[in-house]
Amino acid sequence: MTAWGVDQGIEGSMIKFMGDPAGEFSKALDVEMTHPGPPSVGIIGRCKRHAIYAVDGEIKHMAISEAEDDPAGDAFPEDSCAPALLEAIASCKAD
Predict the structure, then answer these.
(1) What is the largest CA-CA distance in the chain?
(2) What is residue 61's predicted lDDT score, i.e. its pLDDT?
(3) Residue 88 in contact with residue 63, Cβ under 8 Å?
(4) Contact 88, 52 (CB under 8 A)
């Protein structure tokens, strides 16, 4: 995750990349991918594509990009991409 963060230039920003090697966090958030498709091609333990805005440990906004025919959210990830998350953050701050 550190190398990915360096590659993406997040150092010094409000963004934090976090790993979940045992899937505990994914299971707790109910974003564990249980669709049979990914394991059938060797992808085990993946979570659904998601983005979270949290303040002091409280989730203010969570977006999950998935569809019945796209359990990973790879085809249409827009709900969990930066522009949508920034819009959600602005909306949360306005409330």
Answers:
(1) 44
(2) 95
(3) yes
(4) no
